[in-house]
Amino acid sequence: MNDLGHKGWVAWFAANPVAANLLMLLILVAGVMSALNLRVEAFPPVPPNSVSISVSYDSGSARSAEEGITLKLEEALQGIQGIKKISSISNTEGSSITVERSSGYDLDTLYRDIKNRIDGISTLPAEAERPVITKATYLEDAVSVHLAGDVPQDVLQETARQLRTLLLNNPAIERVNTNGRETPEISIEVDEHRLQALNLTISDIAEKVAASSLTVAGGELFSREGSMIVKADQQLYRLRDFEAIVIRQTRDGQRLTLGDVATVRDSYEPSGVLSRFNGERAIWLDIKMYSSSNIMAISEAVQKEIDSFSGSLPQGITAKIWNDQSLYIGARLNLLLKNSVMGIALVMLLLALFLDIRVAFWVGAGLPVIFAGAMLLMDARLFNMTLNEMTTFGFIIALGIVVDDAVVVGESIYSERQRYGASLNSTIRGAQRVTTPTVFGVLTTIVAFLALALVEGEMGKIFSFFAYAAAFCLIFSLVESKLILPAHLAHLKMDSGAARNPVSCGWQWLQTQVSRGLTYFTRNIYRPFVHQVLNFRYVALMLAISLFIIVGGMVPSGQIRAVFFPDIPSDFIEVQLELDPQAGYGLVQKQAIEIEQTAARLNQRLQDEYQLSQPPIPNLMTLSGDSSASVIAGLSPRDQRPFGTQEIADLWQQEVGALEAVRKLKFVTTWEGAADISIELAAESPQTLQQAATKVQEALALYSGVSGIENSMKTGQAQIDLQLRPAGEAMGITTALLARQIQQAYQGYEVQRIQRGRDEMKVKVHYPQDQRQQLDDLQRARIRTPDGRTVALSTVADISTRYVADEIKRTDRSRVAVVTANVNKAIAAPAEIIASIDAQLLTQLQRDYPGLTIRFGGEAQEEAETTNSLKGAFLVALIAIYALLAIPLKSYLQPLMIMSAIPFGVIGALLGHWLHDIPLSLLSLFGILALSGVVVNDSLLLISRYNENRLQGKPTRLAMVEAGCSRMRAIVLTSITTYAGLIPLIWETAENAQFLIPAAVAMGYGILFATLITLILIPALVLISEDLTIRQWRKKRRKHSTTSKTTMETMS
């Protein structure tokens, strides 16, 4: 190899094309192999950050659970390090506490500390079960399988059990949860009137059953021949064996058996749960995935097992796959892939218009190398990232940015070879001429993207994957443009010859016209215009500042709406129904089925009216409980229906109309995260909380766009109180004895638990269902006294009813009431409503109720946390960008001039939001943060060329004007290619792409506007800085002259 006087990696690879090609091939092969092994998921997993404690305590009272369980657990947790927040819920079934860890604290350490404290508690009620302590893990839905049919429940459950076993035998499937399954039991129903006639009580029956069905170990018998186990095994399993249990035997030998006084049957625990799918009784299996799972592999495995199992399904049962996340993920990734392909095509077209077609080809050919290199770094053995919506979005954002570096290098080499001949020396000189500005320009962009990783909160963690993917692409754009591209361009012949076909001829003509047009614009429009700008540079600066103030004022004035997180339409509509607890589960089930049937009728009407090939609501799932229900409609893909999710929900809600005893009826059409508005009130007095929460509810109802207002202090649970009379005390009856007998009679005596097949079954003795539903049934109940007599409950206790809270919430050891509401963000912004209600009501509430504390949760809390960390990340990015600019420029002032493009990039981002009528959101701010590192690149190119001109002795004005003219093509081309790469996503209409559009708009329009500022305002700022330098020099000179004159006068 000839010594050309050039040193460094750029020169070495340019002179050694074999090495450059081998490097390119290595990156491509390794990247493709890594890509084939990348896991696919919807969103990157968010690290778990909490520990939960749950205690089952069937006290029948939320207050009893609070006093007996919750307060003691909270006291035990006091003083443990690493706790950020403690939240608890106490209800009639027990207590549940969630402990959120502080940022950066080790979750395993927190879990061990909590477990040690909780395990040391010895004062919990005897009836309470042991606390269950669990550490949060990443667990997401992968796919659901619904088994539905009008068949007996036991047939449905056995089919579900067989299918679950089959699924778990597949190595790709790790966890399957069964829902809608009822718990089997052996029910022994005894009639109270029959018992009274026989002078028996329900406890007598329970004791006889327990004594007659059991297995007791009698020890071990040792002898010389060996040992034998002694065992009394009288465990019963069959119904007829239970019916044969002797309850009483007379002297003449007559036997009274359990079958004579009770009905023994196989049953299910009463739960009030109703599970339906497409109008039929159903059980569904939820296949879950962990952070290490592959959603595509899980989906394929489930489909395979369902296909093989379908042939053995009992008659009347159908198996349906629903909510397959791989389909949604595939659709989103295909959408992004489509946008990226269109973006690449636009970028290549623009490159071919502005550059020689062969230069454009080699610049564009670097894109596969860059993306392959990025996927190589994402490999599980390196940074262990997945292919998801965020990383794919990172590739799209990087698409137009990564070619900037190659465009500048390619344009510089091309110009150098045109000027000095097609030699290797010219190629190396052209590449090295822009090495410094391009390398440091890419580094500033990487820094801006990586700053996103510093943003705290769930959204910050998710967007950090987008930042890493974009940064990986930028790293390999340096490798490709500095080590591979020069070697390819070094061997191009500058004389392309005459076009041999009409297409080539036409393209060359088009290229010539574009080149002439750009040259004409540069010489005849830009050059004289920038001269005028320099003449009136201070006016230009004032106009730019005024523009910044005017556009920035569009946000607080409301011309550009601002929300923390935009509403993202879902592919599901969920109807959340809640009735007053006293309404009963029968009415809940009735209304849930009515809502379901209304959706089915609407579905048929829309399909007929619009002549659709597929129904807009292909699937309906209904789940009903004691006082609440949920009806979920799965919608067809958006491109297969002429109406959006919200339109269907509005029609559905209109046809449902008003329902009886409704506490909440909510139609959810967007992906639900934190509540739009969440106001948490804390006070010692429940009355204070209730009154203050009611006033907040009433105030929120006055704002337009606010709906679904809820108060966590619900007082709709009916409670029956028993007060022991003196007559009862005289008989030796205690309150505990009274409560225990009533509980056992109406909830049932759990005699024992037996294993029948794969099911653990309870054996329970209780009254028939029709004798334990009404208050009159309770008043007729009989109580056994300690001396064996039976008396009526009404003779030993007073019975009264009242309504109590069925749920008590606490936060950080204080009782709270949480008022939440939804906001239609097309009408109002949650932050504005919160600010208004804070000023008009909340401050007054704290004066009216001393000791009341108020805290904002939900979206407001997330906004505060995320915005604060975003400010810190932005500051870090600015400092790092300044340092990276100051190093190559060897100046303290010039980096500030370059960075002046950042606020004007923000202007472009705001104008883009105004043009597209989309609200400014957190996603927009993420795009603006990334934008701050991109917009300085063109300014850096301009200032670098200006400095070169100054070193050649050219005057300031001439050096600046020539720098702008000579860099015009590179600056314009890098900007429009960046915007072109984002155009398909910016103008995408698909609902599942709306999540990403704000960031794309911020970057695309910010870059376009910053380009204008670069070419117009930066020259003015350079001359203003020169003015200041000259004035400072003149001031020092005058001072020095005055000092010298004074010294001479003193000496004379």
Short structural description:
With 1052 residues, the protein is an alpha+beta fold. The chain is 54% helix and 19% strand. The protein contains 34 helices and 30 strands.
- Describe the sheet with the most strands: 9 strands, antiparallel
Task: Give the proportion of residues in helices.
Answer: 40-55%
The rounded Rg comes to 38 Å
Class based on secondary structure composition and strand pairing? alpha+beta
How confident is the prediction overall: mean pLDDT? 85
Terminal Cα span: 73 Å
CATH topology of the domain at 517-552 and 891-1043: Multidrug efflux transporter AcrB transmembrane fold
Helix run count = 34
Strand elements, count:
30
Describe the structure.
With 1052 residues, this protein is of the alpha+beta class. Among the domains are: 202-261, Multidrug efflux transporter AcrB TolC docking domain, DN and DC subdomains; 517-552 and 891-1043, Up-down Bundle (Multidrug efflux transporter AcrB transmembrane fold); 569-670, Multidrug efflux transporter AcrB pore domain (Alpha-Beta Plaits). The protein has 34 helices and 30 strands. The strands form seven sheets. Strands 1, 2, 3, 4, 20, 21, 28, 29 and 30 form a nine-stranded antiparallel sheet that branches. Strands 5, 6, 13, 14, 15, 16, 17, 18 and 19 form a nine-stranded antiparallel sheet that branches. Strands 12-7-24-23 form a four-stranded mixed sheet. A hairpin with a 5-residue loop joins strand 10 (246-249) and strand 11 (255-257). Helix 2 (17-37) packs across helix 12, helix 21 packs antiparallel against helix 26 and helix 33 (968-986) runs antiparallel to helix 34 (997-1051). It is elongated, with a radius of gyration of 38 Å. The two termini are 73 Å apart. Residues 1-5 have low confidence and may be disordered.
